[in-house]
Amino acid sequence: MLPDVLQCPRCERGALRHEPAGYICTRCSAGYPVIGGMPWLFHDPQGAAGEWRARLALLLGELHGDAVATRAALAAPDLQAATRERLARVADALEDHGRRLTTLLAPLQVHAGDADRDALRALRTRLPVSQALTTYYVNIHRDWAWGDAENRATLDLLDSAAGESLAGARVLVLGAGAGRLAHDLHLRHAPALTVATDLNPMLLSVAREMYAGRALELYEFPLAPRGAREHAILRTLRAPAAADERLQIVAADAMRAPFRPGAFDVVVTPWFIDIVEEPFPRLAAHINSLVAPGGRWLNVGSVAFGFMNMQRALQYGLDEVLAIVRDAGFSPPEVREAVLPYMQSPASRHARLESTVAWSTRKLADVPRPASRGLPDWFVDPNRPVPLHTDLQAHARATRIHAFVMSLIDGRRNLNDIARVLVEQRLMKPEDALPAVRTFMLKMQEDATRRTNL
User: Fold this and answer.
1) Residue 431 to residues 71, 95, 420: CA-CA distances in angstroms?
2) How many domains is the chain partitioned into structurally?
3) What is the mean pLDDT of the segment spanning 354-383?
4) Domain shared by 429 and 305, yes or no
């Protein structure tokens, strides 16, 4: 049933045919692998796998570095016994955590020592910077370890807005994360098909294990531990019940969703619309294209459009959001609001209540589908030259200057020496050089310390 709703994310026209090696577009012959049992339906599947592989290698390196630094701290002569026990516990947990993540994400084929840690840091990938492997790591434990009350409250609020059953419907959950809401909706309503999609392979790999009814052990590292033993807790993750084969997982970018226009009777966006790095009017029009005529859009979560680099004009309030939904071809939304518990881990002193909004709206008309964010020719074809635009040229010059200043650090030069070289190279005026070098070097030192302690 899954191939019936799929569409090639590259040509955005062809249907996808399921074959033993993966999925093939019947129109452009593009191929998409299955990685870890999940269809890998990114526009550039190999590129996406490479980027997540690099991020995983970096994460594993950081966990190892953190474990080494934590063990080194045990050498301090004046440690309390409780502090020594805590540090040893955390160091062991970090090392074991790395091994467990390596096993969970083995299909990405990352091995220790595969890549240089500093090179991976420098060559940041094109995936959204806000979407690291562990960005929503705490959600895993909320979904499948200690968050039953939170999960039930979210599902009940969404149902109160929906007002009717999803039985027999084709349901898409965009930004499904670790997959609990998709699982609970599927078990409560028995849709004909539920597709949980996200771009984060760690979250989806956990969802895969949960949907199959398998238990999984991963560490929780609470933000504000209640005691020494809570700094690292090995949790057992388990779903209340296994799901049937009508609950499917797809790894994909929501803004290049690999689904036919109008393929779903219901599209659900849980805690999604205000964190995806896309202006909400474009997102609403995109969701319209996925909903069948007369179908519904169900939303639940926060309405706080304040994520990184967001322009103020796009930081919408709820009244603006509802107007945009109507402008995107939907009926006036049926809205419910409630204050719900949010990330209230029993092991953490940090917890909050979230003012949560749910709505249900029905598609009344098609609206123009926003153009996909196409990749440039030079990215698709690595033999093409990379154009040197004005902004890129200015950034390249700044980067070269940064690299040049860093190359002057040899353990012998002082700040005055470095400033003098910049003046001699006519990169700065004498009166500006030393203050600039001081500011730059302090920032580099802080960045280096922060990265070491990740």
Assistant:
1) 45, 49, 11
2) 2
3) 82
4) no
* CATH number of the structural domain spanning residue 26: 3.40.50.150
Span 197-221, pLDDT tens digits: 999 999 999 999 999 999 999 999 9
Q: Are residues 296 and 352 in the same domain?
A: yes
Residues 223 and 279 grouped into a single domain: yes
Residue 188 near residue 155 (C-beta atoms within 8 A): yes
Separation CA 293–CA 204 (nearest Å): 29
Residue 83 CB burial class (10 angstroms; 0-12, 13-18, ≥19): middle
**C-beta of residue 68 within 8 angstroms of C-beta of residue 117:** no
Instruction: Dump pLDDT digits (tens) for 78-96.
Output: 999 999 999 999 999 999 9
Asked if 267 and 290 count as a contact pair (C-beta separation under 8 A), the reply is yes
Written as six digits, the tokens of 283 are 């997102």
- Per the listing, tokens 């502090």 go with 83
Residue 24: partners with Cβ closer than 8 Å, 6 or more residues away: 16, 17, 30, 31, 32
Residue 98's domain spans which residues? 1-387
> Are 173 and 294 within one domain?
yes
Q: Say whether both 403 and 267 belong to one domain.
A: no
For residue 375, pLDDT beyond 90 = no
Asked whether residue 13 falls in the same domain as residue 150, the answer is: yes
Instruction: Please write the tens of the pLDDT for every residue from 314-347.
Output: 889 999 999 999 999 999 999 999 999 999 999 9
Give the C-alpha separation, 206 to 262, whole Å.
Answer: 29
Give 269-291 as a DSSP string.
EES-TTTSSS-HHHHHHHHHHHE
Cα–Cα distance, 234 to 219 (Å, whole number): 4
Gyration radius from the chain CA atoms: 25
